[in-house]
Write a structure and sequence with these properties.
The chain is α/β, with parallel strands linked by helices. Helix content is 54%, strand content 15%. Helix 1 packs across helix 4 and helix 2 runs antiparallel to helix 10. The radius of gyration is 23 Å and the shape is globular.
Length: 281
Amino acid sequence: MTRQEPVAPNPVAAFFDVDNTIIRGASAFHIARGLKQRGYFRNRDLIRFGWEQLKYVVFGESQEQMTSVRSEALSIIKGWSVAEMAAIGEEVYDEILAMRIFPGTKALIDEHRAQGHEVWFVTASPVEIGRLIARRLNATGALGTIAEHKGGLYTGRLVGDMMHGEAKAVAVRELAARKELDLSRCFAYGDSMNDAPMLGAVGHGCAINPDSRLRRHAKRNGWPIQEFRGRNPQGRRSIVRSSLTGFVWITMKVLRGIGHTLLTPLRALKRRRGAVADDAV
């Protein structure tokens, strides 16, 4: 009688949203701040991103907001170098993003890796950002929005749709089919109602730092809820406070720069008039 070798079970994967699940706030906004410091953004561009960041943490994600951010971001990055953006992303991760990772989520990622699970980040942000964060946190890989590039430069167009809402669930199912994952044994984590399709696509959905809609949805579906935001588990106050502070800081920096720009020629004119008056005497 021939002895049969035991068949290994299909691999298990854990899928994580990024913004407000792994990273406090919107990762693309933090990258935008780093780009502004390096002269890639105008002041008005950063104010728009700051305003979207504030609305994001106060109200959560919305399709209208994501469409607006997508259109603005694509128009801004057209013609930028892919290689330069990757290098700057590495610097911004060390300067900003590394300090904004929720330790509780990081512990979950490490636990899945210790159990031999694949760990994938699924984000509406550019896939380059997702891959960067995934690599730094020793995850398997990332799925994200793909900005088209040709000849090493961004074209200002997308490849496919934004990785948002139902698109996340579709991407997870497609990845599972390619890698022969058993979705009934897989895990998914997200903070927004827009992550609900992804959480529902696996056997073990979990809400992390959920907005009010996802919190209610998670309770109806019996999904566990994890809170890593500090002392205020029922709301978003601590994140809103920090984001509002950041938005005000950005606005003040811009206004200070505008004031300096406007006042410099006036001061120069005043000095010239004073010199003329002295000569006349």
